[in-house]
């Protein structure tokens, strides 16, 4: 339906969630989905359920922790927050991402003329 | 890596909270959907449309739930469970194979566990005391002339030595303990029935020095020793059996040798004293009453406290912190050298200096060498059995897995990963080993009990945690071997194997054959070693059992009697004379006599210093005239069934007032009088005093044990000696000797209610017990030999049967080309006989080496006994033939037509 929207890579989603939690503090799954939707300006399409798969994975690695709490409109919801291990991992991943993005950027910036 | 580990842990945790996690996720999902729908409604959708959009935006909930559940926990256990179920099915499909494997493992590992358990308890286990590394038994290499001691010359010390060591040696504690009697037991009474209980008389610091606490009440203090207080600490077991673990036991009275002792404490559970084989029931502080003289000996010349030359105390020490064992020993040695000569003539210049030594504070103090050696030999034997058992199971597994090659090939072709196959095979072997291990443990519990009973060890030998670790590590190794060894055979099959015809498969590689042959040859060699050992030991047992005793122990009842209220010589002699008269009147009693040392029990008086008719005996210096002696009653030799060479037996007339009489044996007469015609000669002590008349010469017969060599012996009558505090009554009766016991008890009780019959048994049993260790050793060796033979037979049978079945096509071809059935049979038999011959060639030198090691345990056998070797060789040859008979006949019955058609 939306050919102009890109699929979200699994690893990328993990990274985005980690960053979101780091930036905004404890959030529930719905909040995380909203935040990513908002930031991506509808460029990324996302089955919101996938967020939970990602959350479980992160939790098993102890990068995030969860806790039951009450949402802004008085619903019982599970709040996720980033752990100290998660912070470290985020730093590593961010650096990785930037390096790769830079490389890809350079590669894509090459002009056809440079080739004989 | 840590992320993986963390993930695994999280999954593991989730295993136990499946349900909760499911509902929690459901709730989380619902909330999300509701919030999303609300958002859409706010943006202007109708509520139905909002809900639909929300669901679309969220994705497939069922799929998500399933994914979530899968990744939340691990599939590992589900997989293992599947493998286990599959393994069980595989094992159940081949029940004979499974049962053979389990029995093999159970017996092999179980025998190892049992023997190790006993060996551990006897040779390695430390006393359950605090910091046992600083606690030692004190041993000496000897004692000075003029000292009198108990027979345990290595472990006996005098009271002055004990005092000197505790005061001057710088040892933190010197603990003394003295058995109540030569059997270690004493008559006690809690309620009305008298019984025997094992106890020690100990120094005040015994419990505190060892660091042994109490379950209840207090232990002893120095004041108990100084005042000889009549208090007692009982063992946990005695507390349980006699007081039902009631706290009221404290303050109750325990009558020991008719004296009232107040129970003040219960020793901590697990502490059974320091007497090794004999677990103790009670402890009392050192006593000064004459009836509590050391080892229950008569106190006519004073007790152990006053007779300075009476070496009778066993000692243990605790070295001070920070002092090395050597330093402590050196200081103790200096003190000992001085104190050793208290009450005896001073040391001659140049005579031997007796050396003290510290022995580790083990449960069993310096367990005698022959038993230790026997245990080590047994351990070696069961290890061989285990090796045979192991290689057997490996071969069976390999054969089975090779015949499953098709199955593996199909599974590989259908897409099973090699990893899965390995896991499957490992699971099967672990399953086998686990089941075998359970069987082994059950077997070991029973076997340990039997071992302890046969070795006459009453203390606890049951497998403990160390033994469990030993067994588990053996099992672990087995599981690895069983899992990995057959792996190669199984994995060598690629999926393409399915496509090949069976003929190709049946070409078993010659390399594999050779490996199998090597295993069989080794097994047969080990079997030869075991059989030779078993034959040698069983021959020893046969020799022991057939050794003529020179007397008739059948029909004799023996029990000890210790009068509690007769202390002087006159009183005790009168007591026993009256008792003998009374017992003679029982109907069915042929004759009654008594002996101070029970024949066959190993005890004897060893004396020296005799002149014959006032001269040197046959030219031998008096102190060189050594002999074994016993103090007996009237009619002794008649009762025991020992024939006379000449002269007469002791009679009632040989009383205190009559001239002193002695009876000697043949060896004494020929060695010291130069003639069998010895009656009428006069023996006197080394100084020419205390003359006694030889009234008879008896045939040589066994006194201390069955293995005793003929040696000079001399008997005196108790009626003509000093005080006797205990005698063994020998009664020759009609019918079953033990059936007489109730009658005897009825007669004894009115005489003294505190006097139990001590160790009542048949005289035959006494002699049997004297060789019980050898008998145990031989019977076990025999069992292991048989076990090895059975194992070899099954192993050989399995391998041959497997080979024949694989070669049926080849045999069919041979027969089609004109081979006779007899030729085919011979082909199979020849193969196994060749293997057998190779095994014998390898095994005989090994057996010779092993026989050399056994030499000291043999009686009347040489280690190169030809009959034993012949027995072993014929044995394995027969086994090889029997094991190959069935496969050979199967080979002969191959129908060439159908064998070829199968191709």
Question: What are the key terms here?
Answer:
heterodimer, A: 116 residues, alpha+beta, Arc Repressor Mutant, subunit A, three-stranded antiparallel beta sheet, globular, B: 903 residues, 5 domains, six-stranded mixed beta barrel, 27 helices, 26 strands, 51% helix, 15% strand
Q: Helix count of chain A, per DSSP?
A: 4
Query: How much of the sequence of chain B is in beta strands?
Result: 5-15%
Which architecture name of chain A does CATH use? Answer: Orthogonal Bundle
For the largest interface in this structure, which chains are involved and how many residues does each contribute?
A: A-B, 23 and 27 residues
Q: Mind describing the biggest β-sheet of chain A?
A: 3 strands, antiparallel
State mean pLDDT of chain B (0 to 100 scale). 85
> pLDDT average of chain A, as an integer?
81
Structure, described:
The complex is a heterodimer of chains A (116) and B (903). Chain A has a three-stranded antiparallel beta sheet. By secondary structure, chain A is of the alpha+beta class. Chain A has helices spanning 10-24, 29-40, 50-60, 84-109; strands spanning 27-28, 64-70, 76-82. Chain A starts with 9 loop residues before the first helix and ends in a 7-residue tail after the last helix. Chain A has four helices and three strands. Chain B folds into five domains: 2-74, no CATH class; 75-125 and 376-500, no CATH class; 132-360, no CATH class; 511-548 and 770-903, no CATH class; 563-754, no CATH class. In chain B, the strands form four sheets. In chain B, strands 16, 17, 18, 19, 20, 21, 22, 23 and 24 form a nine-stranded mixed beta sheet that branches. In chain B, strand 4 and strand 5 (194-202) form a beta hairpin. The chains are: A alpha+beta (116), B alpha+beta (903). At the A-B interface, helix 2, helix 3 and strand 3 of A face helix 1, helix 2 and helix 4 of B.
């Amino acid at each position: 339906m939306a050919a102009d929207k890109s699929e979200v890579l699994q690893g990328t989603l993990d990274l985005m969630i980690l960053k979101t939690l780091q930036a905004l503090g404890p959030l529930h799954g719905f909040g995380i989905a909203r935040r990513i939707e908002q930031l991506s300006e509808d460029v990324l399409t996302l089955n919101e359920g996938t967020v939970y798969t990602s959350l479980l994975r992160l939790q098993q690695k102890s990068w995030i922790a969860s806790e039951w709490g009450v949402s802004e409109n008085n619903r019982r919801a599970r709040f996720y927050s980033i752990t100290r291990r998660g912070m470290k991992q985020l730093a590593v991943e961010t650096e990785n991402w930037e390096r790769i993005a830079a490389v890809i950027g350079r590669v894509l910036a090459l002009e056809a003329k440079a080739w004989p | 890596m840590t992320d993986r580990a963390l993930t695994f842990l999280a999954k593991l945790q989730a295993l136990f909270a499946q349900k909760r996690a499911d509902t929690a996720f459901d709730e989380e999902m619902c909330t999300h959907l509701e919030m999303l729908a609300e958002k859409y409604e706010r943006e202007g959708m109708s509520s139905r449309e909002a809900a639909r959009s929300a669901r679309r935006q969220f994705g497939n909930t069922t799929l998500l739930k399933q994914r979530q559940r899968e990744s939340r926990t691990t599939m590992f256990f589900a997989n293992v469970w599947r493998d286990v179920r599959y393994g069980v099915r595989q094992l159940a499909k081949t029940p004979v194979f499974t049962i053979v494997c389990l029995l093999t493992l159970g017996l092999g590992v179980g025998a190892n566990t049992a023997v190790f358990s006993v060996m551990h308890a006897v040779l390695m286990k430390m006393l359950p005391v605090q910091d046992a590394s600083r606690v030692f038994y004190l041993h000496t290499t000897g004692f000075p002339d003029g000292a009198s001691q108990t027979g345990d010359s290595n472990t006996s010390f005098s009271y002055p030595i004990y005092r000197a060591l505790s005061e001057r040696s710088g040892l933190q504690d010197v603990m003394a303990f003295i058995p109540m009697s030569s059997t270690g037991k004493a008559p006690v009474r809690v309620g009305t029935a008298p019984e025997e209980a094992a106890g020690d008389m100990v120094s005040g610091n015994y419990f505190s020095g060892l660091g042994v606490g109490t379950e209840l009440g207090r232990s002893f203090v120095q004041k108990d020793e100084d005042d000889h207080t009549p208090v007692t600490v009982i063992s946990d077991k005695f507390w349980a059996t006699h007081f039902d673990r009631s706290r009221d036991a404290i303050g109750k009275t325990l009558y020991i040798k008719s004296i009232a002792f107040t129970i003040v404490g219960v020793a901590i559970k697990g502490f059974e004293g320091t007497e090794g084989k004999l677990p103790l029931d009670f402890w009392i502080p050192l006593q000064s009453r004459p009836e509590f003289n050391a080892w229950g000996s008569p106190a006519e010349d004073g007790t152990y406290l006053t007779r300075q030359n009476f070496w009778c105390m066993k000692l243990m020490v605790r070295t001070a912190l920070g002092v090395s064992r050597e330093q402590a020993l050196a200081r103790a040695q200096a003190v000992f050298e001085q104190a050793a000569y208290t009450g005896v003539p001073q040391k001659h210049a140049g005579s031997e200096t007796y050396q003290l030594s510290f022995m580790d504070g083990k449960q069993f103090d310096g367990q005698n060498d022959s038993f230790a050696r026997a245990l080590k030999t047994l351990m070696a034997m069961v290890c061989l059995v285990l090796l045979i058992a192991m290689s057997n199971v490996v071969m069976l597994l390999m054969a089975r897995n090779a015949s499953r090659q098709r199955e593996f090939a199909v599974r590989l072709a259908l897409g099973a990963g090699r990893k899965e196959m390995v896991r499957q095979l490992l699971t099967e072997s672990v399953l086998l080993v686990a089941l075998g291990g359970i069987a082994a443990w059950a077997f070991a519990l029973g076997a340990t009990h039997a071992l302890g009973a046969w070795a006459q060890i009453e203390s606890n030998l049951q497998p403990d945690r160390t033994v469990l670790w030993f067994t588990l590590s053996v099992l672990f190794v087995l599981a690895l071997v069983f899992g990995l060894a057959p792996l190669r055979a199984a994995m060598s099959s690629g999926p393409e194997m399915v496509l090949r015809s069976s003929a190709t498969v049946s070409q078993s590689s010659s390399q594999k054959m050779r490996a199998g042959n090597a295993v069989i040859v080794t097994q047969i060699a080990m079997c030869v070693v075991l059989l030779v050992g078993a034959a040698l030991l069983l021959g020893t047992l046969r020799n022991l059992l057939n050794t003529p005793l020179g007397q008739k122990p059948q029909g004799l009842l023996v029990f000890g009697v210790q009068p509690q209220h007769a202390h002087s010589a006159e009183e005790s002699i009168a007591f026993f004379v009256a008792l003998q008269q009374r017992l003679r009147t029982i109907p069915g009693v042929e004759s009654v006599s008594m002996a101070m040392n029970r024949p066959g029990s190993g005890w004897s008086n060893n004396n020296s210093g005799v002149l014959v008719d006032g001269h040197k005996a046959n030219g031998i210096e008096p102190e060189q005239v050594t002999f074994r002696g016993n103090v007996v009653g009237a009619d002794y030799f008649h009762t025991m069934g020992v024939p006379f060479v000449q002269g007469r037996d002791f009679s009632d007339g040989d009383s205190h007032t009559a001239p002193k009489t002695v009876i000697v044996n043949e060896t004494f007469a020929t060695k010291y009088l130069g003639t069998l015609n010895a009656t009428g000669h006069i023996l006197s002590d080394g100084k020419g005093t205390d003359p006694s008349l030889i009234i008879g010469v008896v045939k040589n017969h066994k006194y201390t044990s069955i293995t005793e060599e003929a040696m000079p012996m001399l008997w005196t009558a108790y009626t003509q000696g000093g005080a006797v505090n205990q005698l063994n009554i020998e009664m020759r009766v009609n019918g079953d000797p033990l059936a007489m016991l109730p009658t005897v008890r009825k007669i004894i009780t009115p005489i003294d209610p505190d006097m139990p019959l001590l160790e009542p048994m048949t005289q035959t049993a006494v002699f049997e017990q004297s060789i019980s260790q050898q008998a145990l050793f031989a019977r076990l060796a025999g069992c292991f030999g048989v076990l090895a033979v059975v194992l070899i037979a099954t192993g050989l049978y399995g391998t041959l049967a497997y080979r024949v079945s694989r070669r049926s096509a080849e045999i069919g071809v041979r027969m089609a080309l004109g081979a006779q059935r007899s030729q085919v049979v011979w082909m199979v038999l020849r193969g196994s006989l060749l293997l057998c011959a190779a095994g014998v060639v390898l095994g005989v030198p090994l057996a010779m080496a092993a026989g050399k090691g056994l030499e000291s345990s043999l009686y009347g056998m040489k280690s190169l006994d030809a009959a034993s070797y012949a027995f072993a060789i014929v044995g394995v040859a027969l086994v090889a033939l029997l094991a190959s008979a069935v496969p050979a006949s199967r080979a002969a019955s191959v129908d060439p037509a159908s064998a070829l058609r199968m191709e």
